[in-house]
Amino acid sequence: MYRFLVAIPACLLSLAGSGAWADGAPPLAVGPEGEVLKDGEPYRGFGVNYFNAFLRRLQDLEDDSHWEGFETLANYGIPFARFNAGGFWPVDWELYHEDRDRYFELLDDVVEAAETHGIGLIPSLFWWYAAVPDMVGEPMSAWGDRDSETHAFMRTYVEEVVTRYRDSTAIWAWEWGNEYNLQADLPNVEEHRPPVWPNLGTPEERGPEDDLTHEMLITGAEAFAEEVRKHDPARPITTGHSTPRASAEHMRRGEGWTPDSEDEYRRNLVEMTPHPHNIVSIRLYPHHLDNRFGRDDVTYEELLEITLDAASEAGKAVFVGEFGARAADGLTPEEARETNEAMLAALKETGVPLAAMWVFDFDGQEDDGWNITPDNDRAHLLGLLEEANQKVRE
Q: Which pTM was predicted?
């Protein structure tokens, strides 16, 4: 889900290290039928989103709390974390433009902390879809133009990040961004263009050129993955997309909010994960069952099974990049707890190889009920993840 985060202009600090692969192979890979392999063996694991593990370094010179965070994850046996490996708003990229060495020292420190505590990382390089076009002075539609400045910046940053960390034992996979597909071909797109906050680096106005289509996003996703593959021939790559909207294919054809069939869902899922991406990315929140396939009785298990089958037929794995429920949106605290347990049960039962709960150690979402820490009222979710990981290891 999109989260409009107010970020402070960047700061700096730290240094880092990098662990090389022991046998010349990356820690995670995707097999020919879409199976996830870790160190050459079939693997399943349940991690967390540690959204601002790096962003907090850009925002606060003194904040090295990610070290404690990764230690906590290790203590709970949580194997990996997905995180934002860049700025959010354009202002968050100021240090990158002004002092690139210091910027990467901060990112080095996050990677080193993960390595030290044995935590895998799935870095999302361009989390907020508007940030790069805004930085280079282009509309959002530039993601569909390989000759754009947006693509030029993307290629530069991918090369810098991937070549810097491709030998790290912590890096499990590479991700393009967060839920770009939710912006594609919206019937009410005028109401959902990116916000205008010039103090954070956005332009002063938006227009039709900021409207994205499925085809634009396929172009952007292909270009990102191809650039990653130039520098890392083996690690998995994923788009970071959400579960397709219930009407994604109808929207693509300009037919509004009519629910897609199961076959249309499958088609959209695979086409929006173009080669050389080899991990299909979805989300699992309660609203993803709403009017799915025009029905009101679709279960988490059914949606996951259909997703896994479609991905496997295409030779791709599945990553549930976010999942969870909170005590809001019509759920009581007890109902939220039961829903989280039901989601984890569905993930275990269906054989989803990778899933990451939203969201660990993120103060920005404490008040709205999403934050998970060892000390707050959602601490039990760390125990649920610990138990789930123990069971799949068995």
A: 0.94
